[in-house]
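Feature request, filed as a ticket because there's no other form

It would be nice if the structure record came with a short human-readable summary line next to the tokens. Right now we just get the raw output. Example of a typical job, pasted below so the devs can see what we mean:
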Amino acid sequence: MSYEIKKQILDKIKEYSKIIIFRHKRPDGDATGSTKGLQRILRLTYPEKEILLQNSDFAEYMAFLGGEDAPVTDDYYADALGIVIDTGTTERISNQKFSLCKEIIKIDHHINIAPYGNPMWVEEERSSSCEMIADFYATFKDELKIDSEAATYIYCGMVTDSGRFRFRDVSGETMRLAGMLLDIGIDTDKMYANLYMKEFDIYKFEAYAYGQMQITENGVAYLHVTKEMQEKFCLSQEDASASVSLMDSIKNSLIWLAFIDNDDGSIRVRLRSRFVTINCIGEKYRGGGHACAAGATVYSVEEMNQLISDADARLKEYKENNEGWL
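Raw output as currently delivered:
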């Protein structure tokens, strides 16, 4: 089935002279790498076509991959094909002008709770949308062109969204596609240096954050990154959100949560887990995502505490009904 959908997507791409590529708000490495990677592949293959990235925000920590195209006027969208990548729902699309496109294609690896687009290629078992873009190239490599620049974009997204190939959705196919990209040529030393290097103030924040973490009775670790903390340590939203990874190796803690204050008064929630399915909690609080990696939004400390309570109950239930979790 996936071949037929991929063929439909390729045929649509061939049909249009204008293609606009979109991703989700607050982009991560996968959203950035998949959109830039597909754009580069299509520009190499179809130099006569106009292929643009049109999004309303960007991730500072992905700036080393380069920027995006300047905004276009609304009438530009009318005869364009829109391709939305790595975005489960239309509400999360970074540029809401996507709806002005003549047709929309969806390429995604999140749970398909809000279908949109035609054709719609969704594979929830994939480790990343970048893996799907790599597969798209591999399927039609006799027609499509790629170079080390495109391979770097895609590989970077595969690396970051799979937890450096540690997460459960990583398969043999993931690694075969990654190997294909490496064979094309990627400066992994430069890429990893950009991914791992941090400002000295971030280390100061992390040292402080370890003292602020808390853990519930059943083992849910959590951290609230307040506006005051963000200002004190000069944190970007990406820096603050990355704090969720500081809690990923606490023994007996199978769920960890980071709460990040936003400028508009809302609180962004990043939910992560080992073994335990937690996307249901994200969905309850205006979000969703993968089984063990999800997001949500709450609007008060009271609601934040309720989410923590729900996570604690979920973990208690899991530990009572499962053995050998650690």
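Something like this underneath would help us a lot:
The chain has a mean pLDDT of 94.
The CA atoms of residues 51 and 161 lie 25 Å apart.
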